[in-house]
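=== Discrete structure encoding ===
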Amino acid sequence: MTSVNTNISAMNAYRNLSTTNTAMSKSLERLSSGFRINRAADDAAGLAISEGLRSQIGGLTQAVRNTQDGVSVVQTAEGALSESTSILQRMRDLSVQASNSGSLNTTATSSIQKEIGQLKEELNRIATTTTFNGTKLLDGNFAKAFQVGANAGETISVNIGTAGSGMDALGLGVSGVDVTSSAGPAGVVTGAISDDQGTPTAGKSVVAGDYSTAGTLATNFAALKGSLTYNGKSLDLSSVDYTGASTAANYLGKVQSALDSTFGTGAVTAAATGTASIDFTGQVPAANSTAADGAALTPTWSKQTGASAAITAIDAAITKVSSARADLGAKQNRFEHTINNLNTTIENTTASESRIRDTDMASEMTNFTRTQVLTQAGTAMLAQANQSTQSILKLLG
């Protein structure tokens, strides 16, 4: 049948040309963007899988940075502990030297102790000031987890020291090191009472001796040695400088200044009780305090060790620091292996995501050339189909 109103051939040519134009438009979009999937309609399942892989890649990339931060933290702590080891080795050398009593007089031994006192202060300073991004690393409270994976729970924990026992002189057990003598005054500790034990009262350490009679002050205060511990901090009493003191008030003032400098102004007070002792009194526990609070607020005096005992204490401290450094070194190696594994995983996951999402340029160019030819052919055939109905005019003539 020949019809003027309906040109089926033209309609067919137009339909095929529209399909080809749509295919060529998509091919141009893929070639220009570089992506095979530009919208969900291009490949719904592929898009969902690709977005999941992208989330993994982003998480893994951040995990690499997190792990590198972990390496930096460990290196910072280990570097500080390396210097602490050097300090302890020097303290041990001095203790061995002080043990040679056959060739040393009291003045020489006192000079050795002065250096040991300064070294203990440096141990305390290193433990207090070694930080990473504002977080203290060596105070015994560093127990953190580093996120080293793209998913929840993929962490590596790092603990430096033990809770309540940092890498300062007190935590290492060398705060009481005093090579001058193992002899000295006796001391009695009275613990603070907290709320859960009764009416709160202050704790104190009472060290026997006459610290008020003129004429004996220089000798007795010089013999006031050992270590005073309070609220996690420690003071080597042999490090107190009595230069210029002449009266009991002067000597007590020197002691009080050292206490204020170490523990905070007014935290611990020193007072001579007649000719019997000197009392070191802490603060009264606050309301709702616990037994642990009372223990922390109790000044504890430890007798000086003597040279031989100092060597033993320092050896134990060196072992503790070396163990901590070994643990940190192992954690650093683990972090570095984790980084290598994460980078490999990122590479493989990115390749997988690329195969789903990215355009195969060679294949797509071939498809574009085909649709381009089909578009040209379709346009030509549509023109021929539109002209075909003109032959009907011959029938009308």
Q: What stands out?
A: The mean pLDDT is 86. Residues 7-34+367-397 form one domain. The chain has three domains: 7-34+367-397, 35-178+306-358, 183-303.
